[in-house]
Specification:
heterotrimer, A alpha/beta (about 280), B mainly alpha (about 260), C mainly alpha (about 120), B: mainly alpha, C: about 120 residues, mainly alpha, Arc Repressor Mutant, subunit A, 5 helices, about 60% helix, about 10% strand, elongated, DNA binding (chain C), WH_DNA-bd_sf (chain C)
């Protein structure tokens, strides 16, 4: 479990990024961290990995204070950042030098992923393409069997078949003790993979709901003609029609449209949260 | 993909959170293997350059014992300089924005990261570079046709040099923990600034203490109590600080720097 | 799998199950793929396919043998047909009728059309 309590954080000489940020994440789910550019998604993820320290408040990961970077906590965390560099050694050598630090590392699993992703074992990692490097890190990260996986924009740089492979592998990797958190602005890539939506805006978490709860409480309509105004929680122009988020009164569940949902939350989180609280 | 991955319900083995010898060994192995290419390049270029210089000097100054000592001194200078540069780069992974996350989230404790990096940059470096010097010295004394000089090249001066290196490299070690990139140059700069401030401070202190009274610092005319104090400070306290306190102090500060380190 | 825009994903996956059942790819007593396998196939969160399985279990289409997996119920086909009929009458027919009204078509027009162009039975 991850618990951020009253976290305040600012980079040197800048206005505060997080003010009294509270967030609790439970294992067994894939969390999608959404937010506008500059909202602090990456910084929030870095707090969870103990890479940034809150100015006040605390961030606990599996009971450890994240900033202590206890090796027992670290072997349960794997981070795949958006920007990274890999050393000039081949995959086999990388694995034999790094896997030992993870007591639950599964070599057979690693082999299966490498085969699935068609990654060459003998080519220097630094010579692989960005997408291949990313796939390698995903394979390694999943094989560590770390309970917390932190992925910052994982589908960036992946081609269309790789995105599909990525979704399949994530779907197979989730179990009840894993906690996967993915920050993304390419919502469409991961729409059906994410089962909890967390929205970060102006220094705090303004929305945190399960997809099942969302589809029970609201529906997403692409033609609001004839829908009474008091049932509409948010609306926008889409292809000349009014699309929007509507209170789900019929019990008929629609597909959760993450883009529409995100726009609605950013525009007026209070209205939507009030509806969820009822 | 149709292979289902079994649920891992087994709790991971709890490791010693502070210090584990096995993990320290794996860490050192990792650090060396991940940088193997640049290490080889550094070793080969260092060795090659000195080999060429040694060959030229030894060959054209056969029978001249002094040249062998001169070459030996050159090896020692190269040893110290390479050592400082190498020490400055020992946390390179941590000091680059694209790799620091990997170093900091590696499940190895801060103490192990510190001890591992120090072992590599101090004793391991000394032994490896020492072997290289041994080879070079042997080669040049053979080429200069004076094999009998070879053993005497490793005199007291060599051991002092090694001891001085072991102490002073801790300054560059701290620099490696503290700065983000260009650690060697930044450490040098910091040393210069530090020396400048100490110099300025002593000058001002001297001016306040003596010059205002028109007293010239002179061993004969100096106040005997003051002289004893100075002798004590310069022959006892400062050497003690240098040999026994400086390096441990630098390493402790380095530990705190590692602890504070964020991306 | 390309999902349509309107219906909740777990229901769209349930529809795929219904197709398999109606096309007799799965017959009574068959063990059906696991929640995880289905999640991988459809590239969705396993918690979503779990909702599909729970939904189908509630409707009596599939049943769970603890520790072994999910199986198609003996009357799975009949239940599926009943469910799909209900779904057709409730969800698709109203729109269909509305379109007919808009176009001024009558049921007799349709009958005549079907008799002229016999529909293939797939």
């Amino acid at each position: 479990m991850i618990a951020l309590k009253d976290v305040q954080f600012r980079y040197k000489k800048q206005r505060p990024l997080f003010e009294n940020l509270n967030l609790t994440l439970q294992p067994g789910f894939i969390y999608g961290l959404l937010g506008k550019n500059g909202a602090g998604k990456s910084s929030l993820l870095k707090h969870m990995a103990g890479l940034l320290y809150p100015n006040s408040g605390e961030c606990r990961v599996f009971g450890y204070n994240a900033q202590d970077r206890d090796p027992n906590m670290l072997q349960d965390i794997y981070v795949i950042p958006e920007e990274f560099e890999l050393p000039g050694i081949n995959i086999s050598s990388y694995v034999s030098n790094n896997a030992v630090f993870y007591t639950r590392f599964d070599y057979a699993q690693m082999d299966a992923y490498l085969t699935e992703f068609e990654l060459p074992r003998t080519v220097k990692l630094s010579n692989l393409s960005y997408g291949q490097k990313k796939k390698f890190l995903i394979a390694f990260g999943l094989s560590t069997n770390a309970r917390l996986l932190i992925l910052d924009e994982p589908t960036n740089g992946l081609d269309i078949p790789s995105k599909s492979q990525f979704r399949k592998i994530m779907a197979s990797a989730l179990d009840e003790e894993k906690l996967i958190i993915i920050s993304t602005h390419q919502v469409r890539d991961l729409e059906n993979l994410i089962d909890n939506i967390v929205v970060l805006e102006q220094g705090s978490i303004i929305f945190n709901q399960n997809v099942a709860a969302i589809s029970e409480r609201v529906t997403f309509e692409y033609n609001l003609n004839g829908v009474p105004d008091d049932e509409v929680l948010y609306s926008e122009e889409l292809h000349g029609r009014r699309a929007g988020i509507v209170k789900n009164l019929s019990g008929m569940e629609t597909r959760v449209d993450l883009e529409l949902l995100f726009n609605g939350i950013v525009k007026d989180a209070a209205t939507i949260n009030r509806h969820f609280a009822n | 993909m149709n292979t289902t991955i079994p649920l891992t319900l087994v709790q991971s083995k709890t490791m010693n959170p502070v210090f584990d010898l096995g993990r320290l060994g794996y860490f050192i192995k990792r650090q060396l293997n991940l940088n193997l290419n640049s290490l080889w390049i550094a070793i080969v270029s260092n060795f090659g350059t000195m080999l060429v210089i040694s060959a030229l000097f030894a060959y054209f100054n056969r029978q001249d014992e002094e040249v062998l000592y001169g070459l030996r001194n050159m090896y020692l200078v190269a040893f110290s300089l390479s050592g400082y540069v190498f020490t400055s780069m020992v946390f390179k992974e941590m000091n680059s924005s694209k790799t620091s996350y990997a170093f900091l989230t590696l499940p190895v404790s801060k103490l192990e990261k510190l001890v591992g990096a120090w072992l590599v940059s101090a004793p391991v470096f000394v032994v490896l570079y020492g072997l290289m010097i041994l080879l070079l010295a042997f080669f040049s004394s053979m080429l200069a046709q004076q094999p009998e000089v070879f053993p005497s090249l490793f005199d007291h001066n060599v051991w002092v040099c090694v001891k001085v290196y072991l102490v002073t490299q801790s300054i560059f070690f701290l620099g490696a923990c503290t700065f983000n990139g260009n650690n060697f140059l930044k450490t040098l700069l910091a040393l210069l600034v530090f020396a400048f401030i100490i110099g300025l401070y002593s000058t001002m202190l001297g001016y306040l203490l003596f010059n205002s009274e028109g007293q010239v610092v002179n061993e004969q005319t100096m106040n005997p109590v003051l002289k004893d104090n100075f002798t004590f400070i310069f022959t006892k306290i400062i050497p003690f600080i240098f040999w026994y306190l400086l390096a441990p102090f630098m390493l402790v500060v380095s530990y705190f720097k590692l602890q504070e380190r964020q991306v | 799998m390309e999902f349509r825009d309107t219906q909740a994903i777990y229901l769209q996956i349930a529809d795929r199950f219904f197709e398999n059942i109606l096309q007799k790819k799965w017959i009574s007593g068959d063990k059906i793929p696991s929640i995880r396998d289905m999640a991988v196939e459809f590239e969705v969160n396993p918690n979503t396919t779990m909702r599909t399985f729970n939904f189908l279990q509630d409707k009596g289409v599939i049943y769970n043998k603890r520790g072994i997996g999910y199986f198609l119920a003996d009357d799975g086909l009949e239940k599926t047909i009943a469910l799909k009929k209900e779904q057709f009458l409730q969800e698709e027919l109203p729109g269909f009728v509305k379109t007919m009204q808009l176009l001024g078509l009558t049921l007799d027009d349709l009958k005549a059309y079907v008799q002229r162009n016999p529909l293939s039975d797939n």
